[in-house]
Prior knowledge:
Rossmann fold, 3 domains, six-stranded mixed β-sheet, 17% strand
Amino acid sequence: MVTIADVAKAAGVSVATVSRVMNNSNLVAESTAQIVRQTIQEMSYVPNQQARNLRRNESKTVLVLLPNITNPYYANVFDGINERAQALGYNLFLCSTEGRNPEALLSEAIDCNRADGAILLHINRDARWLQKYSDRFPIVQCCEYAAPCDTAHVSVDNYRAGYEATSYLVGLGRRKVGMISSDNRVMSTLQRMRGYQDALSDAGLPLEDRYVACSDESYSYMSSLEAARKLLSQPDRPDALFCIGDSIALAAVVVAGELGISVPEDVSVVGFDDVIYTKMIHPYLTTMVQPCAELGEHAIEMLHQIITTGTLENRNVILPHGFVARESTCPAPGGVRPE
């Protein structure tokens, strides 16, 4: 039986390159892709042979790696995965990566045949190690993804969402727009920061380093309070804050209250995700809306397709995000609320 490794050796390329060609990736030069396709044809290699093998030894279990199930955002995404997984006949093997090595967890699950595939809800944007696993095992990245890899993923357009959140605050007449980000290395954090920066630049407003602070990598409440205090205790403080998570935004509202700063009049605050506690206390939080359950549903459906067919037509899925204006934002004195 011809394997993907045999094809790679005959074509003089890596297994990853053969995989990319079979998945119609644009990361392979056309001349190289032609050689690979010709080799596949000459050797009568069947691209979905791996999927057939998996079906014969299937466990009907999917590994889900996530950082923290108590975080309402991840809990909502997991709900989407779970509901659709039940309909597709899969059991879920849930594993927290908090304080642990995600590569080691994934490698162990593969080597021990514990699952037919895996969904990763959190991964560093520079995690090159993922490619060697997704070349031989069905994997879908959900919410976050590793940029150097051709591994399938589903997310929202975090750059556009960050740009829109910042532009909304500018449109309210806010001219000192700050941002509370995170010290983590995930793709969404980088993209939301770039969206924030470009929105200020396009509005002709300066990017002030003193108006940017970071929580820790897990958005912990204490680190979010500290970041908010750093910005709001300045004599010339921001008059608006874009926060990359709702928990960070709510911490900013708490700090503002402690300092006698009125939200939204003195400082308007926009969060991100629209989790349940955005409407638990006043002021209700203005926020960018992520389709959390839909992200989870798409992830398991994409993984199911890879498991059952060995291929996936659309490997990079971007779902639409939303926006809801509530009580934590208002026009600045003399500002005009956008239509």
